[in-house]
Amino acid sequence: MPTPTIRVIPSKCLGCGTCVATFPEIFELYDDGSGGMVVRIKSDADLSKLTPEDYERIKTICPSMAIEVVDEEEADAQ
């Protein structure tokens, strides 16, 4: 089974940190340069340890819908 791709859309991110609190091994807050904090995927995040249930949780955890989970094939097509 291919590993899904996780994307953070910075323009939608509120920087609330819900994803960081729930998945600190995957997400981190950083200063976006405009005085606000936004989320990104950690450079050393090991997505291979995530379960299908984790991916489902990640899809719904963000209150501003700034996180997308897409299939590898779908990500390649974009």
Description of the structure:
- The protein has a two-stranded antiparallel ribbon. It has a two-stranded antiparallel ribbon with strand order 2-3.
- 27% of the residues lie in helices and 23% in strands.
- Strand 2 and strand 3 (37-41) form a beta hairpin.
- It is built from three helices and four strands; from the N terminus they run E-H-E-E-H-E-H.
List the helices and strands and how they pair.
Elements: E1 5-8, H1 18-22, E2 27-31, E3 37-41, H2 52-61, E4 67-70, H3 72-77
Antiparallel strand pairs: 1-4, 2-3
Structural class: alpha+beta
**Rg calculated over all Cα atoms:** 12 Å
List low-pLDDT spans.
Answer: none
Strand content: 15-25%
Helical amount: 25-40%
Shape: globular
Q: Mean of residue pLDDT?
A: 89
What's the end-to-end separation, in Å?
20 Å
User: Helix and strand string, N-terminal first?
Assistant: EHEEHEH
DSSP summary: helix tally: 3
Biggest sheet, strands in spatial order? 1-4
The biggest beta sheet is recorded as: 2 strands, antiparallel
What can be said about this structure in brief?
The chain has 78 residues and is α+β, with helices and mostly antiparallel strands.
Tag the structure with descriptive keywords:
single chain, alpha+beta, two-stranded antiparallel ribbon
